[in-house]
Queue: 4 jobs
Job 1
Amino acid sequence: MMGRDDIPVGRGTSTALGTGILGCKYVSAIPQGSGGLLDSDTLYGLARSLPRSPRRYTAENSVEHGAPRNTGNPELRQPLAFEVWQSVKKQLDPSEKITILTNGPLTNLANIVLSDRNASSVIKSVYVVGGHIRDENDSNGNVFTVPSNRYAEFNLFLDPLAAKVVLESTMDITLIPLSSQRKASSFQTLLESLEYAENTPESSFVLHLLSLLHDLQQKHRLYHHMGIFLGELLGAVYLVEGSNMEHSLLLKPISIIADNTTSTDGQVVVNEQSANLVKVLEDFDSDEYYSRVANHLGNMERSAVIGSFTEQRASWSRQPDNLRVR
């Protein structure tokens, strides 16, 4: 995205912890077509309007990675998430540490923790957007495609074992649960804030995307759950601006249910016997939050440099070297 290749983006695994190769027990819980994987893969049709990175999905089929031969242009192979982790870790100065923000299943982070014994020593803190703490309020989670599991949240439900590895570790973790995300789920308020923001490529694109999601939510039942995605913005804003926002955190001893039972997997429970404590974002000023989203996206000094569409069109119109007739 943005036609740039200077920010490493790793390809994550599609295999949940404790399952077979290329397996995820609960992948069927994700809607496949409209409102689901089809739309997320195409960014609801907006992906075609964005520049593209030269990186391509070529797996590990190159001599360097153990294959008997090279694929075309192996230098453009998309790296794995773990390879990006190793590269970033190698570039750290002795005094530097890494802050991690997750807004999906915790599979990749769990794999890093399990595969790299020293990972925790270079991780300063982890912000996890996800989870729904089952408490006295008896509010439901958001796994609407699995009615038998009332209290799970999608990110933890899709890989409960990975969630257990990460959230029950000794790392410094801040959990941004579903209850907090729901306080930041007003499309109308956020869109109004963005309309008054300075016009940058980022603010324009986000306004366009969120307007589309809001419109779909209002018009078709398949898109009733679009508000789920607004919670991901909360994680990013809190990571950057948390210390400047009016908010409250509580330390809670939690445990993750990962017992291979569909009706309970992925649920977060308060367990007074648990030795590990996580910081839980309990409350914040939602009006201030919406303003900060708009102000950050409209800040010209922080606006990214986007690749040239002219260069993109030229590269798309060229026939690949290995297909040219000689």
Note: Confidence is low (pLDDT under 50) at residues 320-326.
Job 2
Amino acid sequence: VLVAVDYFTKWIEAEPLACISTANVQKFVWKNMVTRFGIPYALVSDNGLQFTDKKFNSFIENLGIRH
């Protein structure tokens, strides 16, 4: 399960995923966070492999998100 919480509104977004890959995390961030709440200032994660991947880091850097 991938979970995101909007710090300001405390709104929770969760999505059950069979495989939490970098591509799935990118889709989740775009679909459930950026399009609903706008581009976040920062992203806090557990530093799993999908969050430390070069593709994911370039994706969030291009959006201007700190990690």
Note: The chain is about 45% helix and 10% strand.
Job 3
Amino acid sequence: MARYCRIAPAVNHSPPHFNREQRHREYSGTMKGFDQSAAEVPLVFRNETSDGRAVSSSNGSFDPKASGKQGSWNQREQKRSNTGISLTPSGPWEHKLTDKYLGDVPSSSNTVRYFNRRRQARRVFIDCLIIWCVTAFICAVLASTMYGFSTITRGITQWQKYGYNALVTGCSISLGLAFAAQFNQYAEMMRWRFLAAQYRNMRDFELVLGCSSYRNTLQIAFRGWRPGTWYPTKQQIVALCWFSVFVTFNVFVALIGLTYSIDVSNQFMHLVAGEMDVANLRYIASGQQPDDGVDYPLPYQQAAANLFGQLGQNSYELGADTYTFVNANPKDRKSQAISTRYITTAATCQEVEILLGGHAGFRANTTEDQDTDQDTDQTPDQTLIWVDENGNQHTDVVSSVATGSTTWMSNTTMGGCGPRCAQMLALQTSDIRVVDDVSDSFMPSPRLWACNNTLEQVTHADPNNEGITDINALEMPDLQAWIFAGAIGWTGVCSSEIDENGTERCGDLQYILFNGDTHLSLPADVTAEDVAGTVVGFTIGAITAFDTNGPRQNLTGSDSPRPAQVVVVRWPYAGAILAGIPFVQFVMLLGVVWFSSKAVIIEPGYMAISHILKPIVDKVGEAGPLLSMDEMSDHIGDYNIAYGVRPDPNDPGHHDKTFVRSLGLIDEKEGYGYIRGSMPEGRYD
């Protein structure tokens, strides 16, 4: 059976200068033989009223109809359930006196609260961690946005660009707001420790109490000078550092905009419907001609084809080769994109037998040459006699020759090998006549190659033809194909010859000699595939240069190239900022938890704070509701206060957690001096 004890009457142990109401210590009776697992625990307390009458109270409900000391009670069942370990949603300023802290000394006052430093520190950590998680989440979203858009290597659309800028701007603004909320929260937690650290006048006390406002923080930094000193106080240094850290965080957020750029892609173009600038394949010229090149002279086109071939010499593959045309933006020729149109050329070469010549005009001096009928004093020095693959003998006068070099000759007769096909010869002139020692010769005997080169029609890989309706404007006529096929031997200059009637006429061949230091001057060990590859490479090079520098035309299609914009992120800087901000802020969070847990944190609401400030209001009086803080301070006069635990002679020590201590504002004139250390754990009222 539970036993009850009477609460001892309060005894006033306050010193003479204390003007305080009587305080009561609370005790409870022991409950011997009580089963701790019982569900009903009636606890009865008795207090003395002002007239000395004992009034009982309990955790049950009192029946007012009962009389005397045997009043009836309606017991209420008390149940406690173990919910396991969970993160409490309570705020750091909630210091409830729970059953855990009641122990054997229950409380009869509903205003008594219990301060536990570890519980408050845990709640400060959880409360601040929530906003820190928001900051970390925003940084993660910002990093994901930058990474996601930077992977779009083919270019972002205009709407994607707007969306990216909106996301980055929104995240940056949200990050700044999260900083402000986090720093405001830190200040609300730490200000009570600052207020408990020393006595302050009313002006400084109010500034520190409102240090969550950056206006107050700056006022502390620039108005908190100690009279008679030139160096700043500790609170000035702390305020200035606090504001500097906040500004630094926002500066780094602004610097995120410098860690990325929206550049023009050097690999891709953005294709939209509109006008396209494409090559005009109807004629070959080094520049735009009037009337769309109608009746443009053939020799000019031949010379231009050879010029384009020399201009377009680069790497090439042996055998068949293909070139893909490019589309350009009419307003910006630098904006080019690879089209779906391509053209292919193929060449075949065969070495033929030389009967006479090939020594660059020097007379033959070998026995075999002396025995030939053609080797007479009347035989021209530049005569070349050779036999084709069918056994037919041909005689040509080759004027452009040089020892050890290659002369290319294109046949001006069309149709000899089919449509869009050109015939040509490649003469490797011997240098044996100009060297003192045969071992010094790199071309000991002349060689002649007969080649055919065919240029196919333009092929369209896109069935929609890139949205172009006039397909004929994209194709190459047979004449221009024949010119490009024989481009390696064209000069545009007619070579004269004397026919069998003694009349001078244009020969069937045009000659061109390339310098010996180019790949167009073939080496001695060249093969038929090498010669064919040289012919193909020259033709493709000519078309390449023509597509870049030749005549153009504007057509309407669906693949008009525009500059493709890509997001380029400098990750060493962006990553350092986006990872460093949450890290530094988390370190600050740990510092705030450690620093603020040494003082009792009051709820940041106006009502709770006004309760703490009641002594100041009492000194001012009920009059003067419109007085400013400066006017109140002048009205009260010399009044320095600090937030803390009021010393009590009856306090048995910090080890006693059942003693009810007084928490509030302490006047420096009360004579307690500097209050050091952390606020003790226990009950407060």
Note: The first strand starts at residue 44 and ends at 48.
Job 4
Amino acid sequence: MRLPPWPFRKLALVFALAVATGWADAAPTVRLEAPHAYGYTVGDTIRHVLTVDPEPGDRLDETSLPRPGPLNRWLELRRVAVEPGPGGRLNIALEYQTFYVPLTVKTLAIPGFSLRFTGTTGTTTAAIPAWPFSLSPVHGLAVLSEGGLDAVQADAPPEPPDTATPLRRAGSFALTGLLALAYLGHLRGFWGLGQRGRHFREARLALRRLAVNGNEAAVLRAGFAVVHRAFDRTLEEPLFAERLPEFFTDHTAYAGVRGEIEAFFQASYTLFFGDGTVRDYSLDRLANLCRACVHIERNRPA
């Protein structure tokens, strides 16, 4: 016999519950939401949700709720939870677990129960009917052999996992990481390529730390000393103004900032060996010179 569509079955269930309560004005309205009633096997859990709309002023007698524990030899009520909703509505969740091991498909039923409500007009009850469902065996008693097949077929072997894709991803991640490390090492001069970008970069960082103290004479002298140290380390020996022509001959990459370098050495001579005042060479100008030298240092030929 073909069952009517689920919405009509659900409406019929609400109607049945309402009739079971007497369909009186003072009786609460109960709606049962349940999953499918078929396809269960031993150990499965079944969850029911009762939506109860009691009459105004009525309260649920919680002693009428079923208590968690074994209901019979094959069914256990694992959990009962009552959650209040808007307008006095109650949502009652019940979780059952079946332990029956049928040999063939068998129809069983979750026992019904009654809920009691107390109010100003007395006590009312709502009967929750039994809920039938079908339970299937894990394996049938026997399987007939047909067409030369064995009675019980062996399980299909699992497909081997895809190892190529994770390996390719791991390889691409490793390559990306190595390239990033190589580039970082190039910037920091870890590969011995003339220590490119290292000396003037360190000088620029030192100037940044000095800049917080303003442009006072002592700070400016310290800044000039820092830049002198960068030139000395680039040449790998002390560099004086008299040797600048030789420096530019051996380090042609610095020709673009030759005028600024010469102005730096001239201001340095005035600062350290002259009257000690430099008006046109501040820490900002020193930082700009270092910035230009950093780019040259990184990109010059080894």
Note: The first helix runs from residue 6 to 20.
